[in-house]
Amino acid sequence: MRGHWTSVHGRPGEPGVDWRHRPLQTFFRGNLLKYFTTWDVPTGGASLGAESETSGFSSVSRQSSIPTQLSDFGSNTEALSPTYYGSDYSIKLDAVDSILLDHYTTATSLTLATDDDTARLWQTSVPEIAKHHDFLLHAILACSAFHLLNLAEAKTVSLPQRDLSIKARGHLDLAMPLFRAAIANVNEDNCHAVLIFMHLLVVYSFASEKPVAELFPVAPNDAGAVPSWLYFLRTGCSTLCTVWHSLTSGPVGALALQWDIPVVVKQEDDVMHNDVRRRRQAVFASVVPAITSSEAWSAEQNQLYYDAADQLDIAFASISANRAPLTTWDALRIWPMCISDSFLAMLCDQHPGAMILLAHYCLLLKASEGKSWYFDGRAASLLGRILQSLDVKWYPYIKGPVNQLIGRA
After folding, report:
1. For the residues of 62-98, what is the DSSP string, one character each?
2. Is 19 strand, coil or helix?
3. Which among 363, 390, 395, 400 is positioned nearest to 379, based on CA atoms?
4. 1 with 12: CB under 8 angstroms?
5. N- or C-end of the chain: fewer Cβ atoms within 10 A?
6. CA angle, 374 then 376 then 381, to 5°
7. Mind listing the pLDDT tens digit for each residue in 173-194?
């Protein structure tokens, strides 16, 4: 119907207004592929209202009709002739891709937003920019597929999970060579698409892994490298620094400004908060063994630890003083972006001081949960991995995070 309305009437048409969904069935494949309608269903069917995904954002949206069943989701659609989703996209999309793009516009886009400005950005501006940059369109489809996969795993919809995962990974495989070519020559024409793509890569890197996968390398079998999501965040600003003014003043300005917000600790007059901060600083300071101890750390390790502890204390104080709701983006930016590569190397080596600080950082992660389908559940999971790798003699220093996140001393 979208193909018909686009080619004959010059617009995609509105589901439920210009046309309505009907179940289709076929007994044939290949050149003999024919469809016939079966039973009737209410127009609403099994749908995911965009309102349930927006956290109250007022961005204009229409309801997304998500089929509860896609018969033979992967293999059957390969026999379909490619169709265009709108005349402005250069990539030919099959039937499943059209569903993914529609789902992104009506649902996934709003789950990436943190306020009304970013809701409009993700829902309206990003698809428009993707019309001119194929790598971004592939990333949109990949994230939409993983969002649907998340809904299928939660039993919100009934869709073949394996085929959704294959679709998502296939689109990212197509996107990466195009993206590498774009970042090799970042300019004012492609910088907006590059910034959005980097953000979606962070979402993808979380969505493509289960919560038990590492946010940071803390277990013996973890690779000794910077996690992909953190690499994308830390390199993003430096890659785009020459066009930063165009980004902040352009259609993705609200997103660019989120990367650029400094961590500021306001003057705190609340005695209770000041007391909490002093106790936290005392715990961090007590971790370091005496220089006369047989377990004393090197001078370099001491300095790296103290620097990271100061940054983590500032992060806690900033959140406390500003009293604003903590978003997933805030939690990922406010401490990980500040710590040094040398401190990350200490984490890879399972240095106890680094892992103790990371355990306390889990409290910030937990405060940001409940707002994103691709991130929730990771704070307790990460803390559990830390407990498995950390010697029990260090447990007293992480008693607070363990009690709050796991519920045992």
Report:
1. --B---S--TTHHHHHHTSPPB-SSTT-SS-B-HHHH
2. strand
3. 363
4. no
5. C
6. 115
7. 999 999 989 988 999 999 999 9
Q: Name the 3-class secondary structure at 334.
A: helix
Q: Name 347's Cβ contacts closer than 8 Å, sequence gap at least 6.
A: 216, 217, 218, 354, 355, 358
- Which residues are CB-neighbours of 18 under 8 A, at least 6 positions away? 1, 5
**pTM score over 0.85:** no
CA atoms of 52 and 244, how far apart (whole Å): 34
Per-residue pLDDT reduced to its tens digit, 239-283: 788 888 888 889 988 888 776 655 555 555 555 567 888 888 999
Alpha helices in 184-288 (DSSP H): 191-207, 228-239, 244-248, 253-260, 271-286
DSSP 341-409: HHHHHHHHTT-HHHHHHHHHHHHHHHHHTTS-TTTTTHHHHHHHHHHHHS-GGGGGGGHHHHHHHTS--
Tokens of 150: 């998340």
Q: Which residue in 75, 216, 206 sits closest to 146, CA to CA?
A: 206
The secondary element (H helix, E strand) that includes residue 25 is strand 24-25
